[in-house]
Amino acid sequence: MSGNIEAKEILRKHIAQAASLTDEQFDYFFSHFKSLSCKKGEALIQAGKPVVHEYFVISGCLKAFFVNDDIKTYILQFAMPTWWTSDYAAMYNHTNATITVDCITDAEVLCLSSDDRERLCSELHQIEHFFRWRTNRGYVASQKRLLSFMNNDTKARYEELLSLYPQLYNLVPKHLIAAYLGVSRETLSRLYNHHR
């Protein structure tokens, strides 16, 4: 039970960045989430399957990734505590997932169904405001990453990632960071050793 209280506090602090809810409103909001304990390697979303939930990370680290026809893996996102993840295209368009989301470490997450999210947004203006704020931040981060890929060499992308998310390097194996940066493990090792 204490885990649930902790999860509730973490979510409340996160929401408070953009929306102020009364205790009653927040309790109602929180009642729509389901708490999940996941094991390292466990998939929350699988490519080819329907997507009905988005996930808010309480502890641990997840990754969202795509595997192309040549079996090359592309990592779209790492999701650390207080980050959200899902296959949003599949969730909004009611199609099957094109990406997989799984656990890099054991993780605690809260999941919210898309139906509940829509209902909450129509019932509580502050929740709609929160999700709009969060979506806008996501757009900005995606655009920044895309521009970084277009403008920066591997070394600059690596240093940018290191400065933005230093905790990633303790949570995530090096081969996954290499896949996120779009480089080989060997290239990453050279950068990592040079940087230290």
Account of the 3D structure:
It comes from Dyadobacter chenhuakuii. This is Crp/Fnr family transcriptional regulator. Residues 37-122 form the Cyclic nucleotide-binding domain. Pfam families: cNMP_binding. The chain has 196 residues and is an alpha+beta fold. The chain has a domain at 2-124: Jelly Rolls (Sandwich), CATH 2.60.120.10. 51% of the residues lie in helices and 21% in strands. It has helices at residues 2-16, 23-30, 88-93, 114-123, 125-151, 154-164, 168-171, 174-181, 185-195, and strands spanning 34-38, 43-45, 53-59, 62-67, 73-79, 84-85, 100-103, 107-113. The strands form 2 sheets. A 4-stranded antiparallel β-sheet has the order 1-8-3-6. The protein is globular.
Structural class: alpha+beta
In CATH terms, what is the fold-level topology of the domain at 2-124?
Jelly Rolls
Strand content: 15-25%
The total strand number stands at 8
Largest β sheet strand count, sense and barrel closure: 4 strands, antiparallel
Average predicted local confidence, pLDDT: 91
* Computed Rg: 18 Å
Number of helices: 9
Regions with little confidence, pLDDT below 50 for 5+ residues: none
Keyphrases for this structure?
196 residues, alpha+beta, Jelly Rolls, four-stranded antiparallel β-sheet
Describe the structure concisely for a colleague.
Helix content is 51%, strand content 21%.
List the helices and strands and how they pair.
Layout: H1 2-16, H2 23-30, E1 34-38, E2 43-45, E3 53-59, E4 62-67, E5 73-79, E6 84-85, H3 88-93, E7 100-103, E8 107-113, H4 114-123, H5 125-151, H6 154-164, H7 168-171, H8 174-181, H9 185-195
Domain Cyclic nucleotide-binding: 37-122
Protein name: Crp/Fnr family transcriptional regulator
Pfam families: cNMP_binding
